[in-house]
Amino acid sequence: MSSPRIEVHDDGPALALAVAGLLVSRLAAAQAEGLEPHLALTGGSIADAIHHEVAGVSSDLDWSKVDFWWGDERFVPRDSPDRNAGAARAAFLDPVGADPERVHEIGSSDDFDSVADAAKAYGREIQDHGSETFEVVMLGVGPDGHVASLFPDQPTLDVEDEVAVPVTDSPKPPSERVSLTLPALNRTRATWLVVSGAEKADAVAKALAGGDLPAARVGGSEETVWFLDREAASAL
Fold this sequence. Notes:
Mean pLDDT: 96
Number of strands: 9
Helix content: 25-40%
Shape: globular
Order of helices and strands: EHEHEEHHEEEHEHE
CATH architecture: 3-Layer(aba) Sandwich
Distance between the termini: 22 Å
Structural class: alpha/beta
Strand content: 15-25%
Low-confidence stretches: none
Number of domains: 1
Largest sheet: 6 strands, parallel
């Protein structure tokens, strides 16, 4: 796992604009090397801002040859506004022409009877159709230091023999979610933690100081970058 690097931007909009440009550049560079990159997306307000910015970035990137995955998803009906996938589709996947066959959504409560079944199915899909390594895993960080839907002090943090796990008691509603495990999230060349807001500052500082938080346990083989706005970086 690579050592973390920190980039601080003035505010949320500046952060979103910078990350969007860097993401498009990295994916385009991977394609130029003959790769068909796999990208793991996250949810939340700063992710939504990045997604809207990505849709406006001009490049030679062929979006139809990028595979899209999610680090976690809420186990709710497919048309729920709580679903990360729906927000990403509206913001940039549909506008940029992503190949529907390469957009790998985590199953909803319309698709499966239980969150456990949805997690098993997503794990199989990654094993069957995923790359050995993600190009980029994008993650938000909660005020408690959680990433994806892996929360502090929960047994899902220690699962090593599964790709995805069901979460049935999320401290943040909705309570049922599917999350990739730490080993699955860490099979990536680049891990980008994107954090905005003063309420995240303590968690950022603790994780970067080596504290026992989920956010301190993720990283890419080539790079681990914390993209922060000034408020999120205020406790460093």
